[in-house]
Amino acid sequence: MNIWLTANELALVPSVRAAGWDECQSIQLGLCAGAPAFWSCENDNLSILVGRDDECWEFGVTLPEEIIDDVIAEIKRESKNS
């Protein structure tokens, strides 16, 4: 899954942990295949849903929540190299 994020959206990635699916919360960050990507966390899982909104989505993935740490580390590494 390729998700295109703006610099402003990259800064919001850590806040995804506070977006709980059980509370009907998600954070729209980036585009995937031309559609918005909605991120949320619940029960130690990161969900990324792609579609016109977070209720009527076309596809999604569920990953271990620790992936967020990997994404944040990569963002920091890339920002130092630019």
What would you say this structure looks like, in words?
The chain is of the alpha+beta class and 82 residues long. The chain has one domain (16-81). 26% of the residues lie in helices and 35% in strands. The protein has 2 helices and 4 strands. The protein has helices spanning 7-12, 67-81, and strands spanning 27-32, 35-42, 45-51, 57-64. It has a 4-stranded antiparallel sheet. Strand 3 (45-51) and strand 4 (57-64) form a beta hairpin. The two termini are 24 Å apart. The model has no long low-confidence stretch (mean pLDDT 91).
Secondary structure elements and pairings:
Blueprint: H1 7-12, E1 27-32, E2 35-42, E3 45-51, E4 57-64, H2 67-81
Antiparallel strand pairs: 1-2, 2-3, 3-4
Oligomer: single chain
Helix content: 25-40%
Q: What strand order characterises the main sheet?
A: 1-2-3-4
Largest sheet: 4 strands, antiparallel
Beta content comes to 35-45%
Structural class: alpha+beta
Order of helices and strands: HEEEEH
N-to-C span: 24 Å
What features would you highlight for this structure?
82 residues; alpha+beta; four-stranded antiparallel beta sheet; 2 helices; globular
Question: Would you kindly provide a brief summary of this structure?
Answer:
With 82 residues, the protein is α+β, with helices and mostly antiparallel strands. Helices cover 26% and strands 35% of the residues.
